[in-house]
Amino acid sequence: MKRNRSILKTTIAATLLGTAFTSSAAFAGLVTFEDHLLTVIDGGQSIVSGGYTFTAGDSELAQFVGVTGVAGGVYNGANGCGDTPCPGGNNSNFYVGLNDGSVTVTRNNRVPDFRVGSLDFGFLAPTPGLPDGVWGQLRLTGSLLGGGFINTTRDFSGQNLMGDFMFSRWMLDQSFSSTVLNSLTISACMYDDFGDCNNSLDFPAMNLAQFGIDNLYLAEVPEPTAPALLALGALGMALTSRRRAKQAA
Question: What is the pTM of this model?
Answer without folding.
Answer: 0.79
